[in-house]
Amino acid sequence: MSSPIRVQKKQPPEPSSPISSLPEEIFVDIVARVPRCYYPTLSQVSRRFRSLVASPELYERRSFLGVTEQCIYVAISKDQTSDIHWFTLCRKPSREQPSPGATDNRLVHISSLPPMPLQGSYVAVGSSIFVMGGYQNWQIQSSVSLIDCRSHTAQPLADMPKAVAGSVTEVIDGKIYVIGGSDTLSPMKSPSRSMMVFDTQTETWDLRARPDWEQGKKWLSSVAMGGKIYMRSYYNSFVYDLDEDNCERDEVLHSKEWSNSCVVEDVMYYYDFRGKCLRAYDPKQRSWGVVKGLDGLLPEACKWSTTASYNGGKLALFLQRTEIWCAEIAVERRQGGEIWGRVEWCDVVLGGNFHIMDCVAVTL
Q: Domain 69-363 class?
């Protein structure tokens, strides 16, 4: 007896729309002008849209039109001992102003990227993220990866001259400065005495002897402002002037326990979760201040925080409780020199047992 023949149902054709029937050049030009937060929705419309929003041609057109925006990418470890996975802050478009308790924004896992080393250094240059060193499978790494945030793919680059983890790393004039860090499997011991410089144009490394400042100490945080690198250890804060190759101790800067900071218009910001305030350091005035206008607008009982500056005059503040919160804050200097902040939105963006290791702003 013969088996019954199964008739395969034809898939219904994808719905057509006037825009999808346009010539390719006009089609790309229109989509390039659409804010990137709508791309996840567009990718569900049709295969043509899905292919376009992931293509380099679209981002080349956006760049040509001057339609660029900064997006936040976040390095997350489940328990601070496992590999890094990358998430991006997805802004959900909404016609209505969200209510205070609504979750219109979220961190979305980028599944196409492989796990990255723990305690690596992460810096953004244009539309790319450089990942340098770190610990993987309990081995210290000298590897360097380049993440293309347009296609969400990663590729290896030339290894660092020395394997380190937990370095302070900043980019100035297209060169990435990797300073200190642990060169053994113990992250709190044997800090490296080297300074490595990576030229992003030639993709070559330069190994330099580090000047004799805070030798053998572990660096905790750093930012770049005005062509200088500001660094903090447990014991001191320093300002490294690259032009003069000079590093000086700054006691005023070290009067606060600043870390996980960001820079907006040459002012450094960090969230003091003990003082429950956003602090600002002005390097020209060499003074600290508290950002006003934020009382009662941010979640309390936070255990940890980090910041990233993006979209001109704004910063993203991530706060760790039992879940991860994010607040977008616009900052401005008013008459008299006071700095005020305005909370644009504040949401829970990720639940569960996760820990943010770092975050960077990427231009797309």
A: mainly beta
